C-alpha cells in the first residue's frame, strides 16, 4: 500500500555562503500493507515528521522513491498531489487544524465541498460522519466551544468523510489528557478494524506506539532493525 525505497533526505540551513547540510533520513526502506496500523517512534528531531511530510508530498525527497498503491507519488507535481491527497489520504494532526471561524459541521463539510460534492449529498454525508464519531449533538459548535478530544474527533470526521483508505497521523493524541487519549486510541483501532483503514502514526508516546501492529523506530536517520519484527 505504502512503499518507501532507499529514501534519504537532508536539509540545508544557514546564511548564503555559510550553509550547512543536516542529514535527517538515510536510506530508509519501509512497507506498510493494507489494513496495518504502523507506528513510528524516535527521539525528538529524529526525522519522524520529515518522513510523514515526504510520504504525504509536502516535501520532495532528496533521494529515493515513494509508492502509494501503484502510484509513484515521489514523481508527482503539486497539482497531482493535491488531487491524490483528496482521494486517498486522510490527515490527523496534534493541533487538530480546524478552521476557528467555522462550526464543526462546516469544517467537515468543507472537505466535501473541495471535492466537488453537491450540497444535498454533502450534508447527508456530513451528518452520517458526525453520527460515526459520536458528535451529532455538537455540529453547531465552533472549535473553541469543544473539548480537545471533541476537536480531535471533528478532525477525524473531516478525514473520514472523504473515505480515505489511508490515514496519516502526526502525534494525534499529543494535545489530549490520558483518559481522552485512551478513548481516541480505541476509536482509531475501531476504525482500522471496522473500515479497514490503514494507519501510519508518528508519535513519541509509548501508549500510542503500542496500538501499532508494527512499531518502527527512527534512530540516527535509519530505521531500527527491531522495527521490522511483526
Ligand atoms: N524545514 C526544515 N529546515 C531545516 N531543518 C529542518 C526542517 N525541518 C526539520 N528540520 C530538522 O530535521 C530534523 C528532523 O526534524 P523532524 O521534525 O522530522 O523530527 P521529529 O522526529 O518529528 O521531531 P519531534 O518529535 O520533535 O517533532 C531536526 O534536526 C530538525 O531541526
UniProtKB/TrEMBL annotation:
Residues 2-229 form the ABC transporter domain. The keyword Transport applies. Keywords: ATP-binding, Nucleotide-binding, Transport. GO terms for molecular function: ATP binding. The keyword Lipid metabolism does not apply. This is ABC transporter ATP-binding protein.
Amino acid at each position: 500500500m505504502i512503499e518507501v525505497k532507499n529514501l534519504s533526505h537532508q536539509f540545508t540551513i544557514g546564511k548564503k555562503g555559510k550553509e550547512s547540510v543536516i542529514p535527517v533520513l538515510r536510506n530508509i526502506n519501509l512497507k506498510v500493507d493494507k489494513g496495518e496500523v504502523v507506528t513510528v517512534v524516535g527521539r525528538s528531531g529524529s526525522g519522524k515528521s520529515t518522513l510523514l511530510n515526504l510520504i504525504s508530498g509536502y516535501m520532495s525527497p532528496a533521494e529515493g522513491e515513494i509508492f502509494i498503491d501503484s502510484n509513484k507519488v515521489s514523481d508527482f507535481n503539486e497539482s497531482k498531489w493535491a488531487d491524490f491527497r483528496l482521494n486517498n489520504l486522510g490527515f490527523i494532526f496534534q493541533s487538530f487544524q480546524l478552521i476557528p471561524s467555522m462550526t464543526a459541521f462546516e469544517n467537515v463539510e468543507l472537505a466535501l465541498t473541495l471535492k466537488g460534492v453537491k450540497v444535498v449529498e454533502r450534508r447527508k454525508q456530513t451528518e452520517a460522519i458526525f453520527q460515526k464519531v459520536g458528535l451529532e449533538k455538537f455540529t453547531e459548535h465552533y472549535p473553541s466551544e469543544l473539548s480537545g478530544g471533541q476537536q480531535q474527533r471533528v478532525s477525524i470526521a473531516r478525514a473520514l468523510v472523504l473515505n480515505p483508505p489511508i490515514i496519516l497521523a502526526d502525534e494525534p493524541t499529543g494535545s489530549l489528557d490520558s483518559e481522552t487519549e485512551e478513548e481516541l486510541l480505541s476509536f482509531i483501532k475501531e476504525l482500522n478494524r471496522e473500515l479497514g483503514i490503514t494507519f501510519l502514526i508518528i508519535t513519541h508516546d509509548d501508549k500510542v506506539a503500542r496500538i501499532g501492529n508494527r512499531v518502527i523506530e527512527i534512530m540516527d536517520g535509519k530505521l531500527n532493525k527491531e522495527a521490522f519484527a511483526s
